[in-house]
Write a structure and sequence with these properties.
- There is one protein chain.
- The protein contains 14 helices and 12 strands.
- It has 3 domains: 143 residues, no CATH class; 115 residues, Thrombin, subunit H, CATH 2.40.10.10; 88 residues, Thrombin, subunit H, CATH 2.40.10.10.
- Helix 3 packs parallel to helix 6 and helix 6 packs across helix 7.
- Strands 1-2-3-6-5-4 form a 6-stranded antiparallel barrel. Strands 7-8-9-12-11-10 form a 6-stranded antiparallel barrel.
- Helix content is 29%, strand content 19%.
- The chain has 426 residues and is of the alpha+beta class.
- The protein is globular, with a radius of gyration of 24 Å.
- Strand 7 and strand 8 form a beta hairpin.
Length: 426
């Protein structure tokens, strides 16, 4: 009976509350209620009320399917300001590293939760951690925006905002997994599969172009190569292209030809900061691919950065007709997105050792080294060129050599690479 009711209510929501016309906060609350994740209060959803840190934590544990496990927890935290109703939730979350206090003995249970507090809880539940360099509290908002959990930072964070962010988080994949938070809840029996399916939440779903842009453009950077120290000082770059991060600590993928002949290189991120390229960890001229190590310290000084990055997926998963997106800097125009399809997933062409991904996602000079994404947001290729006399006939290097490369090496500098290639007559 519970399942039937959930399906009926989900269907009513879909049919009677058009997303474009409905209050997004109310729709989010209704959806979470249908899934059994929000019960409301005696005064309804109280969308405009500011939640406390204890309330936000209890809600977060419910989102993760950990509420019952927390109720059975018999450990203790050092906090002395937690009300009895939230005691086990706080103790459990503290023990498992999901929360910390405002000081050694206080959790701040009755304090108003800030947006970054809530984002930090959600990111930890999704498998991201400060220790791994995925984010910091200060940057949690930027990571939440990139993942599509939030549209922007909030000046005041109320229950309606919390419900909207929570609903968005349900469809986010867990870190380095293809499983989303809602899939985890369904698998654990915390949410009815029929309700999740009826609401279009369960299972991997293609992202919209707007979601692709919102989540992934900040992982793509402007890459410049320099042939001398003087050109670096004067910023007279001889190559202007693109690269994209594949780790938070600065591993950057690009083409080989974007760094060819350079002895220095810098990247410029979405926020305008410049960072020097420290080492080349992988290069292959025959397939036109490279992996660079970028310093995490801005050239102008400042805090060490944690870079947003793309996940990768083998090009063997790509089929003719699949939707793809190209992210790059065509003609130096940063944060450019184009969409197309795979025209051929095994295109043999001169100049490249591997079969290429022929596609119709438009690129231009400057797009070299950019990311070719599948419709789920995974990098499947490196945009590199096009057929000179063709139309909508663009080429990308499959990402597979990067997946298979040993990136744990010490690497060499760009100058050392240039001198080595000159010695080899290349």
């Amino acid at each position: 009976m519970k399942k039937i009711f959930a399906v009926i209510l989900a269907a009513v929501l879909l049919l009677t509350v058009p997303a474009a016309a409905a209050d997004g906060r109310l729709l989010a609350a209704d959806t979470l209620y249908t899934l059994g994740l929000v019960s409301g209060t005696g005064n309804g959803y109280e969308l405009d009320r500011f939640p406390t840190r204890a309330e936000a934590l209890a809600f977060t544990l419910r989102l993760a399917g950990l509420e019952d496990e927390a109720k059975d927890f018999d450990g203790a935290s050092p906090f002395t300001d937690v009300p009895n109703w939230a005691r086990q939730s706080v103790d459990y979350a503290y023990f498992h590293g999901l929360v910390s206090g405002i000081d050694d003995s206080h959790f701040g249970a009755q304090m108003q939760v800030r947006d970054k507090d809530f984002f930090t809880m959600l990111l930890r539940l999704l498998g991201y951690s400060e220790e791994a360099g995925d984010f910091s509290w200060a940057l949690s908002g930027a990571v939440a925006v990139r993942l599509g959990i939030a549209e922007a930072l909030y000046t005041g964070f109320d229950r309606g905002d919390m419900f909207e962010c929570a609903l968005a988080a349900l469809t986010c994949p867990l870190k380095d997994q293809d499983v989303t938070l809602i899939d985890k809840l369904v698998a654990g029996g915390d949410v009815e599969r029929a309700a999740a399916n009826a609401l279009g939440l369960s299972g991997a779903r293609p992202l919209t172009p707007q979601e692709i842009s919102d989540r992934f453009t900040t992982s793509v950077v402007y890459l410049e190569g320099f042939e001398s120290a003087a050109s670096l000082v004067n910023r007279a770059s001889n190559t202007r292209s693109t690269g994209f991060f594949i780790s938070g600590d600065g591993l950057l993928v690009s083409n080989y030809h974007t760094i060819e002949g350079a002895i220095y290189a810098t990247i410029t991120t979405d926020d305008g900061e410049r960072y020097p390229v420290e080492k080349v960890l992988y290069y292959n001229a025959e397939i036109d691919a490279s992996v660079l190590k970028v310093s995490q310290t801005p050239m102008g000084g400042g805090e060490k950065a944690v870079f947003p990055y793309l996940r990768m997926m083998s090009a063997a998963t790509v089929h003719i007709g699949d939707t793809v997106y190209a992210l790059g800097n065509p003609l130096g125009l940063k944060n450019s997105l184009s969409v197309g399809i795979i025209s051929n997933n095994q295109r043999i062409t001169s100049g490249f050792e591997l079969p290429m991904l022929q596609n119709t996602a438009s690129i231009s000079q400057g797009s070299s080294g950019g990311a070719l994404l599948n419709e789920y947001g995974y990098a499947i290729g490196i945009t590199t060129g096009s057929f000179t006399y063709g139309k909508d006939m663009y080429l990308a290097v499959p990402i597979d050599p990067i997946l298979e490369a040993d990136l744990g090496t010490e690497g060499i500098t760009l100058q050392e690479l240039t001198e080595l290639m000159q010695e080899q007559g290349k």
